[in-house]
Each structure stands twice: as structure tokens, then as C-alpha cells.
């Protein structure tokens, strides 16, 4: 979100926070226009614009002659159920599926419900630009020097370390290697612990970037079922590791905080159990914390790394979702693999560009990140709530829906034997995109599921697209 947001947006955001926190519960009366103007020392026009904005976002509704009230929400749809997964590890063919998706989504008139990309207006573009200028003023030679350190800018590593200290865990700056986005962090982590032909236990359904990565590195994947709310099933992993298929497992890969696509959050007790199980089985744990800062309720869950006592957890993340998707800066907390990660980084891409790193370090040092996150989280919460509501209104009876507590993707399970790969072909012809469920499995599961991106403000066009998708799903389910 840009720092230069108009005043009525700021007032609307403050009211949205009160609504999201429950301080203003469903059906509560909202202050009148006059009262709001007085309370906030703003003009009547600004007060009206704030209330209209909240109404457009579906957070409040007007009642004739009575004023504005917090909108009521219907009971949520049931969450998707776990499916049975193969108990053997396999190589995946994610690349071919991704190519198909990219070809189909080449149509520019799409509803932006596909890839997990947020609205650029959600990010503090003006403040980032001035941080970049400050970085260049402070180090005028920045563009002309070769980065000396493979592990990245010291000031950025210190800021990342300070951020995690604020969250409540120690992540020493010296343990961090700065990377080109989270994908490079994951690539390094995976290469540090596994060789081609090795097996990695992976939560399922899982972000398709992992599948693509595993395919390119030639590692086999053993899918571990997830609980819709609590994330990867530690019990199922324990059972798999004890069986024949679990013998060659080198590492486990999870998104414990707000998984993609399911949105689940692993409770702290389970994170402890997972780390302990990895210790028992002597395997590495690779953790993707890219959505950790995006809790809808404003809390900040600890990563599994916080419970790591013997440096076996490789924490990977980036600023791509939380602050600046365009800078391609991520990091991996390397633990016992520090030396090999630095060597791998040198081989893979050399050092990461300095200017974006110093810009981020300046921005983080300015103390504005928390304020930005507060607004971003509210927007994510609101957009997810609007899309969820619309899906419940327009999708066929029996549809199940995730209830993400963070991030901005929704996981939808359709009733009947619907194949969302086929549905995608039809929907894309009408300008509606999404990601078919089979993209999130190494074994082609979830054919009747799909993922929706909620990264953009909810508009009539998005509502219309969801309505059309619901109609197509209804027809497909009836066949
Ligand atoms: C869970 C997860 N990890 C990693 C990435 C990729 O991150 P980056 O763009 O920083 O490489 C994504 C992008 O959607 C993601 O959802």
C-alpha cells in the first residue's frame, strides 16, 4: 500500500481494523457521517467517502434511515477433506503441467484469480523509492562495485535478524545467505541436503513451485497429507518414515505458516513435534516462511526454526509477498549447512544484486515495515473474506472451502467428479482464470479442486468472474 494513500482510505482502514478484530462485531452500528467527521477531524465529504469505500468492500451495509452497520457473514462452508495419497515416492512432471497453464493464461483479459500475485498498489512504492535514493546517497558507488560477499549485504542481514528477533526468535545475521527470491533459497536448501534420486517428504497439496524445483533437481517426492487447519500431518509423516517408502528420505519440506494453497497454520505444539521427529529420523527440515508476516489477525506465528535445537532447519523466505515482489530478494537461514550453501550460491548465480538489498535494508531500518504490514494484512483478510463469501454464494452446493488465517489464496474443493483441468479450458475462454488442483500434487491428486488468488481488491468484475466460474462448476458437477 502506498504511503501517500488518501485520507478516506486511512479512515476506512482504521474502521476495517476494528471490524476485523471484532471490536465492531457483525450488525454493530457504525458512527454516523457527522460523528465520524467530528471524531476524526475530517470533512463530511471525506467521512462519506470512507463509509462508501467500506460498503464497496462489503464490510458494512447501509439500512434506509438508520445508517451504517457492520455486515453480517454467513456460516462458513465446510473445509476440504484430506485425500488418500500414494505411499511411494515418485518423480514428478510438473514442468509439462505448468507449461500448459502458462499457455492457457496467456490471454490478457483474465480476472487475475490464477497466479498468487497481489495488487501492486498494496505495496509502499513511494517509500521504497525513497529508500533506494537514500541507499544510493549513502553509498554512491553501489552500482559500480562487485558484491564482495556471497552471503549478501550485512546491513540487510542485520535487519532480517532484527525482524525475527521482534517476532521472538534468534536468527543470527551471520547465519543468513541472501538469495534471488525464495525460490533460490529453496533451491540452495534442497541442493544442500539432497542429491538426484534422493527422496523428499513434502506436504500435499503443495505450492507447485516445489514440484517444479524437485523435478529439475531429479529428487523424488513422497507426499504427506495435511490437516486443513493444522498443516502437515506429523503423525502421517512419522508413519511414512517408519515404513519402506520412508527409508531414503533426506528432508521434509513444509510451509508451516499459511500454506499455499491450503492456507493452514501449524500450531506451535505441532511445530515442536515436527522438529523433534526430524531430529529423531535425522533428516533436514526445509521450511518456507514466505507468508509468515501475513496473518489476518495481526499475530506473527513463530516458524519451526524457532524450535530447532541442533541447526537442522533451513528457513527460506523472501520479501516477494510481504513487501516488494519486484526486488527478487530472499534469504535462507543456513544453520549447519552454512559453508555448502555459500559455495552453492556462488555456483548457482554468484552474489545477489546490491542495490535492492541496500534499499530493503534502508526501508526496514526506517521502522515503517510494521505499519505497512498492518494494512497489508487487513487487505488480505478482507479480500479473502469477500472472495470466500462470493464462492459460497455462487458455487454448487457441497463445495468445500479453506479458511485461511493468513496469505491471500483460497483452496476450493468441488463436489462430484469435476476435472478442474478441463474446467480451466472452459473458464479461460470466458476470461476467468484459476489454478487447477492437480498442479499442487506430485501424483495428480486434487483433480476436483482449484486455487483462487485473492490478491486484488474485490470488484464487480471479480464477483462476475466468480459467478461465471460457479456456473461452469455447477454444469460440470451435474454431468
Ligand atoms: C510458498 C511459496 N514459496 C515461494 C514462492 C516464490 O517466491 P519468490 O517469488 O520469492 O521466489 C511462492 C510464490 O508464489 C510461494 O507461494
Can you give me a brief rundown of this structure?
By secondary structure, the protein is an alpha/beta fold. The protein has helices spanning 7-21, 33-40, 44-56, 94-104, 125-138, 154-167, 181-193, 208-217, 234-242, 268-281, 338-349, 354-365, 369-394, 420-429, 460-478; strands spanning 60-63, 67-70, 176-179, 199-204, 220-227, 231-232, 249-254, 284-288, 313-318, 330-333, 400-401, 409-413, 435-436, 449-453.
Structure description:
The chain is α/β, with parallel strands linked by helices and 479 residues long. It folds into 3 domains: 7-70, Arc Repressor Mutant, subunit A, CATH 1.10.10.10; 94-119 and 371-478, Alpha-Beta Complex (Aspartate Aminotransferase, domain 1); 122-369, Aspartate Aminotransferase, domain 2 (3-Layer(aba) Sandwich), CATH 3.40.640. It contains 15 helices and 14 strands. It has helices at residues 7-21, 33-40, 44-56, 94-104, 125-138, 154-167, 181-193, 208-217, 234-242, 268-281, 338-349, 354-365, 369-394, 420-429, 460-478, and strands at 60-63, 67-70, 176-179, 199-204, 220-227, 231-232, 249-254, 284-288, 313-318, 330-333, 400-401, 409-413, 435-436, 449-453. Bound molecules: pyridoxal-5'-phosphate. Pyridoxal-5'-phosphate is lined by residues 116, 181-183, 207, 209, 255, 260, 288, 290, 318, 320, 330.
Amino acid at each position: 500500500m502506498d504511503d501517500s494513500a488518501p485520507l478516506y482510505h486511512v479512515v476506512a482502514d482504521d474502521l476495517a481494523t476494528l471490524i476485523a478484530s471484532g471490536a465492531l462485531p457483525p450488525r454493530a452500528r457504525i458512527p454516523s457521517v457527522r460523528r465520524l467527521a467530528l471524531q476524526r477531524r475530517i470533512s463530511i465529504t471525506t467521512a462519506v467517502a470512507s463509509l462508501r469505500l467500506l460498503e464497496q468492500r462489503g464490510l458494512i451495509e447501509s439500512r434506509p434511515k438508520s445508517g451504517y452497520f457492520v455486515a453480517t457473514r454467513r456460516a462458513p462452508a465446510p473445509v476440504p477433506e484430506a485425500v488418500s495419497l500414494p505411499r511411494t515416492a515418485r518423480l514428478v512432471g510438473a514442468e509439462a503441467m505448468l507449461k500448459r497453464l502458462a499457455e492457457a493464461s496467456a490471454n490478457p483479459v483474465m480476472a487475475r484469480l490464477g497466479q498468487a500475485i497481489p495488487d501492486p498498489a498494496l505495496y509502499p512504492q513511494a517509500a521504497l523509492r525513497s529508500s533506494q535514493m537514500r541507499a544510493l546517497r549513502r553509498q554512491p558507488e553501489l552500482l559500480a562495485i562487485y558484491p564482495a560477499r556471497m552471503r549478501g549485504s550485512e546491513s540487510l542481514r542485520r535487519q532480517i535478524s532484527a525482524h525475527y528477533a521482534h517476532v521472538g526468535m534468534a536468527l543470527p545475521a551471520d547465519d543468513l545467505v541472501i538469495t534471488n527470491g525464495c525460490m533460490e533459497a529453496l533451491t540452495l536448501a534442497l541442493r544442500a541436503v539432497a542429491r538426484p534420486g534422493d527422496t523428499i517428504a513434502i506436504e500435499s497439496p503443495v505450492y507447485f513451485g516445489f514440484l517444479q524445483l524437485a523435478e529439475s533437481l531429479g529428487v523424488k517426492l513422497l507426499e504427506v497429507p495435511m490437516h486443513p487447519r493444522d498443516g502437515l500431518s506429523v503423525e502421517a509423516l512419522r508413519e511414512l518414515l517408519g515404513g519402506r517408502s520412508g527409508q531414503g528420505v533426506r528432508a521434509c519440506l513444509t510451509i508451516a505458516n499459511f500454506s499455499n494453497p491450503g492456507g493452514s497454520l501449524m500450531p506451535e505444539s505441532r511445530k515442536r513435534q515436527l522438529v523433534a521427529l526430524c531430529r529423531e529420523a535425522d533428516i533436514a527440515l526445509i521450511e518456507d516462511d514466505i507468508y509468515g508476516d501475513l496473518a489476518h489477525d495481526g499475530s506473527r506465528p513463530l516458524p519451526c526454526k524457532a524450535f530447532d535445537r541442533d541447526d537442522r532447519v533451513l528457513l527460506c523466505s523472501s520479501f516477494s509477498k510481504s513487501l516488494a515482489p519486484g526486488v527478487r530478494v530472499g534469504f535462507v537461514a543456513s544453520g549447519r549447512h552454512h559453508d555448502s550453501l555459500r559455495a552453492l550460491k556462488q555456483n548457482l548465480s554468484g552474489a545477489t544484486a546490491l542495490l535492492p538489498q541496500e534499499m530493503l535494508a534502508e526501508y526496514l531500518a526506517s521502522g515503517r515495515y510494521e505499519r505497512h504490514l498492518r494494512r497489508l494484512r487487513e487487505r488480505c483478510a478482507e479480500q479473502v473474506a469477500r472472495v470466500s463469501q462470493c464462492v459460497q454464494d455462487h458455487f454448487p452446493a457441497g463445495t468445500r472451502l479453506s479458511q485461511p488465517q493468513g496469505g491471500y489464496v483460497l483452496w476450493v474443493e468441488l463436489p462430484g467428479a469435476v476435472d478442474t483441468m478441463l474446467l480451466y479450458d472452459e473458464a479461460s475462454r470466458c476470461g476467468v482464470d484459476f489454478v487447477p488442483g492437480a498442479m499442487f500434487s506430485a501424483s495428480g491428486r486434487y483433480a476436483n479442486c482449484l486455487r483462487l488468488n485473492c490478491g486484488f481488491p474485490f470488484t464487480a468484475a471479480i464477483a462476475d468472474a466468480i459467478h461465471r466460474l460457479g456456473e461452469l462448476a455447477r454444469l460440470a458437477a451435474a454431468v
